[in-house]
Amino acid sequence: MRTAITVPETPVPTRSTLNPSSRASLRTSGNTKTRLLDAAETLFIDAGYEAMSMRLITARADANLAAVNYHFGGKDALIHAMLSRRLDGLNQGRLALLERFQSSLGSQLTCEHILGAMFIPALQQSRCIEKSGPALLRLLGRAYTDPSPFIRNFLRGVYAEMAERFFNAFQTVLPHLPREELGWRLHFCIGSLAGILAGADTDSRIADFAQGQRLEDSQLIGRLALVMVAALKAPLLLPNSVCQFASMFAEHGPVLNSAAPLKTDPSSESPFAHDAASQHVNA
């Protein structure tokens, strides 16, 4: 009779069972990945996508090209991971807050609630050091103003659904605005905000305006909402009405009038994925 032989089960290595040199290797690997993400984020915030290079990223991260390929597979994947690290959770929080407002308020939903769903999660995350802290707002500003097709296509593709959800919410509370007109207004509002956030002196400007007084986050969003809601609710320009700027352009001849035509439907780009976006609320 053949005796069954029991083969001892090989334990799965864990942090507690790894020897010191193996644990050090894991820490080094994890730190390298994080350093690459942090370096890419800092360079992107400061200079934008087109000014970034693998040499600058790896030098700042104290890593090499092989590490980038190992952890991410290349520069584009690294940039995707860098943006997703900050924006995925943020946008989930935005959508959750928007859904909560829509569910609890119904027909009482206002522009202010939608703007709150866009901005409150971003401002709260910017106060959390573990989630990049103040750098988050500059990251949002840079992401939504960066002219690189790579960045724009990434935001449109990954966050198109979220952008559409917010756009539809605005249409619900502003039913008198044609889709194209709403697209223009959101494009201008969120684009202006993103430009401000991309600047390095935003915090100092806010401090100057506050004149030494403490400005609560609710007050900051309140001031922002006042301007944006006024723009969103501005009267429509009637088709046959005279634009007051027409005569000003006419006084300066054909030079100014020869500017390239503007796109007719910015809403097709998604007002948030180009962000603003803000698209994401980001900001």
CATH architecture of the largest domain: Orthogonal Bundle
CATH class of the largest domain: Mainly Alpha
Shape by Cα distribution: globular
The CATH topology of the largest domain: Tetracycline Repressor, domain 2
Structural class based on helices, strands and sheet pairing: mainly alpha
Q: Termini, distance in Å?
A: 75 Å
Number of helices: 13
Number of strands: 1
Strand content: under 5%
The biggest sheet, with number of strands, parallel, antiparallel or mixed sense and barrel status, is:
none
Task: Please tell me the total number of domains.
Answer: 2
Radius of gyration: 24 Å
CATH superfamily of the largest domain: Tetracycline Repressor, domain 2
How would you sum up this structure, described in words?
The radius of gyration is 24 Å and the shape is globular. The chain contains 13 helices and 1 strand; from the N terminus they run H-H-H-H-H-H-H-H-H-H-H-H-E-H. It folds into 2 domains: 22-73, Arc Repressor Mutant, subunit A (Orthogonal Bundle); 83-237 and 262-283, Orthogonal Bundle (Tetracycline Repressor, domain 2), CATH 1.10.357.10. Helix 1 packs across helix 2 (54-61) and helix 1 (20-47) packs across helix 6 (135-145). The chain has 283 residues and is mainly α. It starts with 19 loop residues before the first helix and ends with a helix. The chain is 65% helix and 1% strand.
